[in-house]
Amino acid sequence: MHDKGITTAAVCVYPARVCDAVKALKAAGCTIPVASVATGFPAGQTHLKTRLEEVRLAVEDGATEIDVVINRTLVLTGQWEALYDEIRQFRKACGKAHLKTILATGELGSLTNVYKASMIAMMAGSDFIKTSTGKETVNATFPVAIVMLRAIRDFFWKTGKKIGFKPAGGIRSAKDSLAWLSLIKEELGDEWLKPELFRIGASALLSDIERQIYHHVTGRYAAYHDLPMC
């Protein structure tokens, strides 16, 4: 399967490990981009100045994608302009790097808040909106996904700009991922079924995909401990 071009869309690390990841991938002759979480991941409760500096440092170290997490307090207290202003500053700090905005939907209180936060993140310049950090009690769910996808569709109809979507947390098997692929196809269409507009953030899923590829090649399943990622 080495010639099939099957890779992850990016390798995501903490800001302090960006340099290590860039060096390791370069040494391996690999062109997979490095993404970095930032802005006080996962809680987003550090000072704004610190969060912005974290973004800038990650970009300087070689990250080409930045996953920021919003301050949930601004959503829960209805400070929508302040939320917009913060994400605009994250956008500026990213420079040319792609900005993925994590909404932490399991902590936003209502689907109405999820929709509003989605729209504000897109208006402020996000390239992707992402459901969760993977650290919340409730992560990627279909009801939340439908709200976010319809916000993306509304935004596209109004502006002509396509924004990506990334569910994260709790997606553990290749069969689970098929349901998400079907949802994207039904809500946004085939043009969103590519890494530039759809990602799945789930480390456990990678292990199962590895097992499925092994089965495809050999006709049998490997034990988890037989495979490198597992």
TrEMBL record:
Pfam families: DeoC. Pathway: Carbohydrate degradation; 2-deoxy-D-ribose 1-phosphate degradation; D-glyceraldehyde 3-phosphate and acetaldehyde from 2-deoxy-alpha-D-ribose 1-phosphate: step 2/2. It comes from the Eukaryota. GO terms for biological process: carbohydrate catabolic process; deoxyribonucleotide catabolic process; deoxyribose phosphate catabolic process. It catalyses: 2-deoxy-D-ribose 5-phosphate = D-glyceraldehyde 3-phosphate + acetaldehyde. SMART domains: DeoC. Keywords: Cytoplasm, Lyase, Nucleus, Schiff base. Its main location: cytoplasm. Belongs to the DeoC/FbaB aldolase family. DeoC type 2 subfamily. This is Deoxyribose-phosphate aldolase.
